[in-house]
């Protein structure tokens, strides 16, 4: 098993070594939903540094069992679960509403910490997914950026599951253009999280500097759990 994990990680890091089309370094987040603890430890041993969790309960379980990782939260987040993440994750990637940002701010202030977040965007306007529409982001970030103890570090895009490469390219380019505009406006942007195992090569060519990889690193998972 270790040889497979090592091979997977080395292959990905070799592919991204030259960065994206803007010359930016690529940050890899291991999307570790339903990945067994021993497999995660092998991945960390072989160069993976960041784990991304989708469920608060699984995040809590992991942090009690696995040392040596930086943690991001990348899934849909309910306001009543924010308390379990404050001060324990380095980045919440999935801030999809003013209400959620406000609760993160409130609890971060209460705990005397600053929480880094990404605003989740929904560039294809999919009703089944959360996130701000592209034309809603500028107004939202003005309000969120004024909240205490929250720093917006960039955007996270949820792209559609499609084989239409032209569509994905167009959505990536639009999201990157918005990212650049907001960064030029003075927001402290560092990350454009965009791309998963099936499309990360394309997203890197079109502006992503953070990718969320599960299957290609860890192998197939049992989603019936």
Short description:
This protein is 38% helix and 18% strand. The protein has 225 residues and is α/β, with parallel strands linked by helices. α3 (56-65) links the parallel β2 and β3.
Strand tally: 8
> What is the arithmetic mean of pLDDT?
96
Strand content: 15-25%
Kindly report the name of the CATH homologous superfamily.
Alanine racemase
Largest sheet composition: 8 strands, parallel
Q: CATH topology, what is it called?
A: TIM Barrel
* Class based on secondary structure composition and strand pairing: alpha/beta
- CATH architectural label: Alpha-Beta Barrel
Portion of residues within helices:
25-40%
**Could you give the distance between the termini?**
21 Å
Secondary-structure map with pairings?
Blueprint: H1 2-15, E1 27-31, H2 37-45, E2 50-53, H3 56-65, E3 70-73, E4 91-95, H4 98-110, E5 115-121, H5 137-145, E6 150-157, H6 165-184, E7 191-193, H7 200-205, E8 210-213, H8 215-218
Parallel strand pairs: 1-2, 1-8, 2-3, 3-4, 4-5, 5-6, 6-7
What does this structure look like?
This protein is α/β, with parallel strands linked by helices. The chain has helices spanning 2-15, 37-45, 56-65, 98-110, 137-145, 165-184, 200-205, 215-218; strands at residues 27-31, 50-53, 70-73, 91-95, 115-121, 150-157, 191-193, 210-213. The chain has one domain (2-218): Alanine racemase (TIM Barrel). Strands 7-6-5-4-3-2-1-8 form an eight-stranded parallel beta sheet.
């Amino acid at each position: 098993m270790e040889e497979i994990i090592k091979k997977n990680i080395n292959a990905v890091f070799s592919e991204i070594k030259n960065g994206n089309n803007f010359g930016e370094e690529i940050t890899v987040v291991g999307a570790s939903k339903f990945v067994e603890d021993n497999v995660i430890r092998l991945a960390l041993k072989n160069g993976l540094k960041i784990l991304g969790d989708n469920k608060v309960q699984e995040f809590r379980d992991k942090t009690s069992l696995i040392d040596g990782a930086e943690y991001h939260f990348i899934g849909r987040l309910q306001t009543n679960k924010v308390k379990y993440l404050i001060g324990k994750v380095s980045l919440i990637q999935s801030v999809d509403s003013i209400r959620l940002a406000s609760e993160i701010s409130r609890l971060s202030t209460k705990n005397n910490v600053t929480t880094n977040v990404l605003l989740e965007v929904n560039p294809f306007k999919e009703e089944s997914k959360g996130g701000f529409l592209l034309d809603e982001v500028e107004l939202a970030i003005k309000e969120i950026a004024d909240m205490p103890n929250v720093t917006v570090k960039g955007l996270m895009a949820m792209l559609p599951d499609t084989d239409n490469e032209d569509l994905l390219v167009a959505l990536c380019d639009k999201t990157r253009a918005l990212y650049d505009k907001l960064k030029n406006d003075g927001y402290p942007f560092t990350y454009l999280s965009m791309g998963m195992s099936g499309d990360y090569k394309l997203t890197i060519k079109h502006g992503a500097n953070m990718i969320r990889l599960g299957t290609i690193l860890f192998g197939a998972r049992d989603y019936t759990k």
